Amino acid sequence: MTMPRPRLLFVVTEDWFFCSHFLPMARAALVEGFDVSVACRIRDHRQTIEALGCRVLPLEADRKTLNPFAVLGTLGQMHRIIRAEKPAIVHLIALRSIIVGGLAARTAGVGKRVIALTGMGLLGAAETLSARLARGGIRLYLRTIVDGPSARFLFENRSDPLLLGLNPDDPTKVLIVGGAGVDPAVFTPQPLPSGPTIRIALIARMLWSKGIDTAVEAVKLARAQGADVSLSLYGAPDPSNPKAIPEATLADWARTAGISWRGRIDQNEVPAIWAAHHLAMLPSRGGEGLPRTLLEAAACGRAILTTDVPGCRDLVRNGVEGLVVPPGDAEALAKAILHFTTNPADITRMGEAAHRRVLDGYTEQAVGELVVALYRSMLNDR
Question: Which of 303, 319, 294 is nearest to 354 (CA)?
Answer without folding.
Answer: 303
